[in-house]
Amino acid sequence: MQITPPAEAQAIIDREIQSGRYATQEDVIVDALKHLDDESYVYDAMSDPKVLEAIAQADRGEARELTEEVWNEIRERAREDARRGVAIPDDVKY
Questions:
Q1: Left, alpha or beta for 85 (phi > 0: left; psi -120 to 50: alpha)?
Q2: pTM for the structure as a whole
Q3: What is the extent of the structural domain holding 3?
Q4: Residue 61 region, left (φ>0) first, then alpha (ψ -120 to 50), else beta?
Q5: How far apart are CA 72 and CA 74, in angstroms?
Q6: Which of 40, 46, 35 is nearest to 12 (CA)?
Q7: Non-local CB neighbours of 94 within 8 Å, separated by 6+ positions
Q8: Are 83 and 12 in contact (CB under 8 A)?
Q9: Per-residue pLDDT for the chain (94 aa), expressed as one digit of tens each?
């Protein structure tokens, strides 16, 4: 089957491939279709190592409420990283 996505959708596909998360257009589309099924989406999220680590951190009491103060700390850390030339990891760019 040949599909020509609209320019906006193609831009999203291209961005996902450039991020390194997906290798091909087909990979992006297949994953997007899987996410149409809520049950599949929840399963995928719960099998993501980063999600599992976040849950473990919360269970250990290492989580903080996302307050304005915490946002300010995050912004300041990002500014300092930018001043030092620290690269932004691909998984937090979008």
A1: left
A2: 0.41
A3: 1-36
A4: left
A5: 5
A6: 35
A7: 15, 19
A8: no
A9: 788 999 999 999 999 999 999 999 999 999 888 887 766 666 677 788 888 999 999 999 999 899 999 999 999 999 999 999 998 887 777 6
Q: How many CB atoms lie within 10 A of CB 28?
A: 20
Does residue 42 sit within a domain? no
Q: How many domains does the chain have?
A: 2
Residues 28 and 59 reside in one and the same domain: no
* Residue 33 to residue 3: CA distance in whole angstroms: 14
Looking at the fold, whether 29 and 55 belong to one and the same domain comes out as: no
